[in-house]
């Protein structure tokens, strides 16, 4: 049976095919190069983590396959501004429509409204999506190891790097993490959510953390809700945290971000 992730990748292939009919890679490439250079997403994460503070990537997320509706979010800019006021290091904006209710327009609006780096969170399988992301202003992209073999991940990594973007590499198990660690980006995310079984366990970061060398920044992703969760994850050496649902559901986003950021 197909998992939610398999279904997402199926329709991403269709989206990529239509994008290629609608826009040429060379036009997108010129648009991407005409943009002002990307904000340093990796630099921002690394410099905060170096001070032993928590570098939070706060996510704009309306709905998800695991949670259903999270926040109708009429204006993503308001949430993004609260993230900035709370002290987020960077912002991630889900741009997938069918499963997450996001759009590239959300990312553009957020990127224009804030001055911190912004990641286009989507399921990247083709260079054209990366060109589209940079042409729209994105500073960083996510590469999910479970949907890319090593060669494919390396070529997408190269494409993003050539455009000056930062790359967050995501792994959920030992083999994926090995693949992520073989790539140059210093940002290594361990996703606590098993995207195939849709189960979220913070133990995943605890189990895999010892594989991550000190010259990489370990970023724990998904299922992070409380100050206790951050306490627990900091013990693994993680100083980066990617948080969506719990912040999107918070009644006071600024306060929640501040609390999670300030935990030592
Ligand atoms: O969140 C999902 O249900 C999901 C399902 C299938 C593929 C990806 C999915 N999530 C993407 C993410 O990586 C999370 O949005 C991110 O790590 C934040 O997680 P959370 O704090 O649990 O919202």
UniProtKB/TrEMBL annotation:
It holds the Pfam family IGPS. Pathway: Amino-acid biosynthesis; L-tryptophan biosynthesis; L-tryptophan from chorismate: step 4/5. Keywords: Amino-acid biosynthesis, Aromatic amino acid biosynthesis, Decarboxylase, Lyase, Tryptophan biosynthesis. Gene3D superfamilies: Aldolase class I. It comes from the Bacteria. Residues 5-260 form the Indole-3-glycerol phosphate synthase domain. Transmembrane segments: none annotated. Its EC number is 4.1.1.48. GO terms for biological process: L-tryptophan biosynthetic process. PROSITE patterns: IGPS. One of its GO terms (molecular function) is phosphoribosylanthranilate isomerase activity. It catalyses: 1-(2-carboxyphenylamino)-1-deoxy-D-ribulose 5-phosphate + H(+) = (1S,2R)-1-C-(indol-3-yl)glycerol 3-phosphate + CO2 + H2O. Belongs to the TrpC family. This is Indole-3-glycerol phosphate synthase. It comes from Hirschia baltica (strain ATCC 49814 / DSM 5838 / IFAM 1418). The gene is trpC.
């Amino acid at each position: 049976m197909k998992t939610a992730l398999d279904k997402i990748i199926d329709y991403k292939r269709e989206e990529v095919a239509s994008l290629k009919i609608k826009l040429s890679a060379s036009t997108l490439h010129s648009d991407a190069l005409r943009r002002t250079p990307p904000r340093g997403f990796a630099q921002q994460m690394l410099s905060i983590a170096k001070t032993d503070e928590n570098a939070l990537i706060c996510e704009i997320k309306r709905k998800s396959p695991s949670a259903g509706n999270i926040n109708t979010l009429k204006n993503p800019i308001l949430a993004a501004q609260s993230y900035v006021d709370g002290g987020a290091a960077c912002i991630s904006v889900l741009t997938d429509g069918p499963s997450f209710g996001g759009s590239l327009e959300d990312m553009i609006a957020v990127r224009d409204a804030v001055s911190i780096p912004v990641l286009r969170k989507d399921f990247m399988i083709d260079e054209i999506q990366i060109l589209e992301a940079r042409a729209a202003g994105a500073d960083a992209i996510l590469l999910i190891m479970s949907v890319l073999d090593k060669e494919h991940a390396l070529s997408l990594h190269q494409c993003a790097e050539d455009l000056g973007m930062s790359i967050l590499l995501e792994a959920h198990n030992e083999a994926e993490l090995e693949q992520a660690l073989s790539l140059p980006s210093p940002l290594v995310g361990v996703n606590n959510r098993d995207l195939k079984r849709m189960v979220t366990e913070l133990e995943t970061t605890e189990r895999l953390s010892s594989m991550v060398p000190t010259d990489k920044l370990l970023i724990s992703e998904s299922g992070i809700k409380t100050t206790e969760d951050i306490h627990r994850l900091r013990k693994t050496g993680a100083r980066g945290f990617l948080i969506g649902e719990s912040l999107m559901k918070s009644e006071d986003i600024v306060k929640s971000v501040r609390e999670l950021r300030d935990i030592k």
